[in-house]
Write a structure and sequence with these properties.
382 residues, Rossmann fold, 2 domains, 5-stranded parallel beta sheet
Length: 382
């Protein structure tokens, strides 16, 4: 356990304003040149609202915290909007923030001897921070990226506020969390290249801290995936519009139809023919509106984490999910993945939809074989 402090803990707060912008427009992140492509496709910022959720929740807890922040959109704005006292200790060099701005802020945080760095972003942001901080200071990630596979993230922004309270109260544990990042250029080619940047310190609180992503493979998994695909094809409605999510399990359904799957994207199928590959949120909504008939989402689960929506499939927006309807969502996960899970999570960014999706779900994990798992809309406990 972390011992309670007699004096306020010092928290360095950092927001990556562009984190997650590429998700709904079918990009795999916003690193480098991807930001301009995201803007060209009409992407809008996601991080500010996620940061605001965290800060509003933290404000209600009355925490004894001294906040150090980056200027403007990198942290200051959201703290000021919630009237949380803070000190600005670093400024970005331009209108568009860069990894260099993140690194500069982290160096100041270390100089000021912060007890914790709370950051809003995804795996890329975590990697940039870890490159400067290493294991010197615990990291608490508020999820906002396209992908959050590292083991330093809370399951939602509000859960991050609850983790912070436990850290301040001395009722949490400092543990190790892997900093994992996928090569975005390789992802756009449909190739998974995962790199372990290192092992950071993080704050662990059961039920509120997400595990690092785990990949499963082997003959049992392949048989399970083929059984899932065969089951779906047996009941497939030729007039329905199928939205096939990312991942190898959903991809097995595409392969069974003889179609090429966008491994890290979302594909549209009707009558066992590809309608659109790697669709954006807007393209999915337009296709559903034009179709006017039944639709179905086939979506996988992130290994060890249990996330169904809100991680790596931001194209499946609240609007898309509502247009399809809860009864027309099929969750698929191969056998070993299911065995490792106690529950599922949903984090669409829409609390009312998350609440609607909460409850027990059938998970198809083999040929005509379903198991029931609870889906949790993980708001911070009261």
């Amino acid at each position: 356990m972390v011992p309670p402090s007699a004096t306020p803990l010092t928290v360095g707060f950092l927001v990556n304003p562009i984190a997650g912008m590429g998700g709904r427009v079918a990009l795999k992140g916003t690193d480098g040149e991807a930001l301009q492509e995201a803007l060209a496709r009409g992407a809008t910022p996601r991080a500010p609202s996620r940061a605001a959720d965290f800060v509003r929740a933290a404000a209600t807890l009355g925490l004894s915290v001294r906040w150090l922040a980056c200027a403007g959109p990198m942290g200051e704005n959201v703290l000021a909007s919630s009237k949380i006292p803070h000190e600005v200790v670093s400024k970005p060099h331009g209108a568009v923030t860069t990894p260099a701005d993140t690194a500069a802020a982290c160096r100041v945080f270390l100089e000021r001897k912060v007890d914790l760095i709370a950051f809003v972003g995804g795996d890329g942001t975590a990697k940039d921070i870890f490159a400067v901080v290493g294991e010197q200071v615990p990291l608490l990630g508020i999820p906002s990226g396209v992908k959050m596979h590292s083991g330093v993230f809370a399951i939602t922004p509000r859960a991050a506020a609850e983790i912070l309270r436990a850290f301040v109260d001395g009722t949490s544990r400092v543990e190790e969390g892997g900093i994992v990042d996928e090569d975005e250029a390789a992802m756009r080619r449909g190739v998974i290249e995962v790199n372990l940047a290192g092992v950071a310190k993080t704050i662990a609180l059961e039920g509120l801290t997400q595990a690092a992503k785990v990949e499963y493979s082997g003959e049992v998994e392949e048989v399970s995936k083929r059984g899932i695909a065969d089951t779906i094809l047996e009941r497939m409605d030729e007039n329905a519009l199928y939205i096939i999510g990312p991942g190898t399990t959903a991809g097995a359904v595409m392969e069974a139809m003889g179609l090429k799957h966008t491994l890290l994207g979302v594909d549209l199928v009707r009558g066992r023919k590809l309608v659109r590959a790697d669709a954006t949120d807007a393209q999915l909504r337009d296709a559903l509106a034009a179709h006017g008939g039944p639709g179905e989402i086939i979506v996988g689960v992130i290994g060890a984490q249990g996330f169904v929506f809100g991680r790596g499939n931001l194209q499946l927006s609240p609007e898309v999910i509502r247009a399809v309807g809860k009864p027309h969502i099929t969750i698929v996960a191969a056998e070993k993945k299911v065995e490792a899970l106690k529950e599922l999570f949903v984090d669409t960014g829409d609390p009312s939809l998350d609440a609607e999706l909460a409850g027990h779900w059938r998970v198809l994990c083999g040929y005509r074989w379903n198991v029931f798992l609870p889906m949790r809309a993980p708001a911070a406990p009261k």
